[in-house]
């Protein structure tokens, strides 16, 4: 591979291995698949200081930019000491790289022997790696819940800015969110320009968002997220329709 040769010529003994990973190595890639490559660099024999790291990143960026491949290259650099420590712990990520990865360049000469040792059952996960993974699970759950909360926040602002734009269309200075329902009823619902149904939907999303930011709700069912997203999209389309009828 042209990229591997360029990288090896540039980094010389700093670069121990260039490993093809992901769907390309497994033979399951499609026309849309990117190319995943892992570079293992020697920080055991060569001291990595700030200047070296900066130089490495700049030169690697130049090589990637000059790539002749139509597919995007996803390059991950791993330090040899980190790789080795994770291997000793039986880290699943490292084991999968060894199991499915294909060395393009292996100056260190260790990748294929490790693959054979893994196939022979000589390299196994450790209790330490198991507990390390288990300890990461709560954070994954927290991130998942934060993503749920973020989805509601997106719905909230979609409806707020749709409503404010609607009020601006009739030359009214957009109010703060808590005053929007009253103003929508006064200027649109009471004049039969907007159904009260949409104001109630706005209030539903507004109230839910307030409960979230005040910590009253810490977990949301996926069906509720879908419902609020549907209300936000419907509200936006309705506001756009009214605005178009006003300004045409």
In N-to-C order, the SSE pattern is: HEHEHEHHEHHHHH
Q: What structural class is derived from the secondary structure elements?
A: alpha+beta
Termini Cα gap: 59 Å
Helical content stands at 55-70%
Helix segment count? 10
Shape: elongated
Poorly predicted runs of 5 or more residues: none
Q: Would you count the extended β strands for me?
A: 4
Radius of gyration from the CA trace? 28 Å
Most strands sheet: 4 strands, mixed
Portion in strands: 5-15%
Report the mean per-residue pLDDT as an integer: 87
Strand order of the largest sheet: 3-2-1-4
Q: Which features would summarize this protein structure in a list?
A:
single chain; 248 residues; 10 helices
Task: Provide a brief overview of the structure.
By secondary structure, the chain is of the alpha+beta class. It has ten helices and four strands, in the order αβαβαβααβααααα.
Overview of this protein structure:
It is a single chain. By secondary structure, the chain is an alpha+beta fold. It has helices spanning 2-11, 23-26, 50-65, 80-89, 92-100, 111-119, 127-168, 180-189, 196-213, 222-247; strands at 15-21, 35-41, 73-79, 102-106. Helix 3 (50-65) links the parallel strand 2 (35-41) and strand 3 (73-79). Helix 7 crosses helix 8 (180-189), helix 7 (127-168) packs antiparallel against helix 9 and helix 7 (127-168) packs parallel to helix 10. The termini are far apart. The mean pLDDT is 87.
